[in-house]
């Protein structure tokens, strides 16, 4: 089960090179010049957060502009905000993005699926408000970032609006669903035990309680205007999670469903809806007629991208005039960004077998490593039956014993200790079943 714990609090960090995987330090988008300002912000736990702020070189009327903070998923990083920047910058909305603590190249050891990330977001909001160069603030989160945005928005009603892309409604429910989706071979009572085990393990390592990550409760006390989005074929965080949040949400709300899955590129109509939503809630200033710095039909290009104009932004001469950018629309610009560095993906750990691969991989060993906790999940209880001869494959919620760990002194310290505790939970459950069905053990009449 250690792999399952790490899947939550220590997924692989997104790897990227700020010099090549972020939008350029200076770039043109739809005839206007923008730049990227990289900053470091310290959170309340003294972790250094690596951040970037995309904004126009010259603001319309010289006034502060509204800003959207992009919040990435649990395996993501600030490079995932490139699409958001391309979408929102032409509307005079700046985009701020960060590597959450434990993610990307920021400090911090663990990911907490929104719990500590909420405090990271608070540090960013405080920075932007003290900086004085932004007016209204909006949030755009995906997966873990959507949960983070919702949890923070419930505490800060000054947030003008939020886009919540594929949030989960309750982390424990999500974990139960993942066991079913990926056909992890556990009777329900052992699933409950496993989740209790993981709860304690995560409390010990990452210092937060998974039962506190319930966004349904948060939605009932949040009044920030929100636009929810969810892919209809998302089998990681299923669409009903957004439906439940939408039903409970107290503020102005709307929801959009679109084709794809959890990691699919989002469709253009969804981006258009986001742009309209943020335009309405953030009320950015309109450009003055003829304000564009250069009269060009080209939508986007920057240094070291399509045209390799290294001198761009370092010369007063419009040296780009003889260069031919390969993009002619925002849609093409997004495609080009995706080709350079695709959006970070949420991947199920390879050692959690899928329903099609489970039997092929059952019993395989990984090199010389000792048996992992996850490999013990599918061990046979007796006589070759994966569930044991007396254990029903379907059980009601009250047909299990939740193996309580009241303190960390009883926490398993090895794979062998974990298996012993696991089997104790199984035996306690079997005894409980015998108490409930005493007649099943009575000899029939005439038998000695």
From TrEMBL:
Region annotated Disordered, chain positions: 313-391
Annotated Basic and acidic residues bias: 353-368
Compositional bias segments (type: Polar residues): 370-381
One Pfam family hit: Abhydrolase_1
Cited SUPFAM superfamilies: alpha/beta-Hydrolases
Residues of the AB hydrolase-1 domain: 66-182
PANTHER family, A to Z: ALPHA/BETA-HYDROLASE, ALPHA_BETA HYDROLASE FOLD-1 DOMAIN-CONTAINING PROTEIN
Name the UniProt record assigns to this protein: AB hydrolase-1 domain-containing protein
């Amino acid at each position: 089960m250690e792999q399952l714990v790490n899947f939550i609090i220590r997924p692989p960090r997104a790897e990227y090179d700020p010099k090549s995987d972020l939008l350029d330090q200076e770039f043109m988008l739809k005839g206007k010049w923008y730049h990227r300002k990289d900053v470091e912000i310290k959170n309340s736990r003294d972790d250094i957060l690596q951040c970037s702020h995309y904004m126009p070189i010259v603001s319309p009327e010289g006034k502060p502009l509204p800003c959207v903070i992009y919040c990435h998923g649990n395996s993501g990083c600030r490079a995932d905000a490139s699409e958001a920047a391309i979408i929102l910058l032409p509307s005079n909305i700046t985009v701020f993005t960060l590597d959450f603590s434990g993610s990307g190249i920021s400090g911090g050891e663990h990911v907490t699926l929104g719990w500590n990330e909420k405090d990271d977001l608070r540090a960013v909001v405080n920075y932007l408000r003290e900086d004085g160069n932004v007016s209204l603030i909006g949030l755009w989160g995906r997966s873990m970032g959507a949960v983070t945005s919702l949890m923070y928005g419930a505490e800060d009603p000054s947030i003008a609006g939020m886009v919540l892309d594929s949030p989960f409604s309750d982390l424990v429910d999500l974990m139960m669903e993942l066991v079913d989706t990926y056909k992890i071979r556990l009777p329900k009572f052992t699933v409950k035990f496993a989740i209790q085990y993981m709860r304690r393990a995560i409390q010990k390592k990452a210092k937060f309680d998974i039962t506190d990550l319930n966004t349904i409760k948060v939605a009932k006390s949040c009044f920030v205007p929100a636009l929810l989005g969810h892919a209809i074929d998302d089998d990681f965080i299923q669409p009903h999670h957004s439906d439940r949040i939408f039903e409970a949400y107290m503020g102005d709300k709307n929801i959009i469903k679109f084709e794809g899955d959890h990691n699919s590129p989002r469709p253009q109509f969804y981006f258009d809806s986001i742009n309209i939503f943020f335009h309405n809630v953030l009320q950015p200033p309109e450009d003055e007629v003829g304000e564009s710095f250069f009269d060009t039909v080209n939508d986007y290009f920057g240094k070291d991208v399509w045209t390799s104009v290294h001198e761009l932004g370092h010369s007063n001469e419009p040296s780009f005039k003889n260069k031919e950018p390969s993009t002619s629309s925002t849609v093409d610009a997004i495609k080009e960004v995706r080709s350079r560095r695709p959006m970070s993906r949420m991947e199920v750990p390879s050692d959690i077998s899928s329903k099609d691969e489970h039997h092929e991989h059952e019993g395989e060993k990984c090199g010389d490593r000792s048996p992992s906790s996850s490999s013990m999940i599918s061990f046979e209880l007796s006589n070759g039956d994966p569930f044991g001869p007396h254990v029903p494959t379907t059980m009601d919620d009250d047909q299990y014993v939740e193996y309580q760990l009241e303190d960390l002194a009883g926490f398993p310290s090895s794979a062998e200790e974990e298996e012993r505790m696991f089997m104790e939970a199984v035996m306690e459950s079997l005894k409980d079943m015998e108490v409930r069905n005493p007649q099943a053990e009575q000899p029939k009449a005439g038998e000695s």
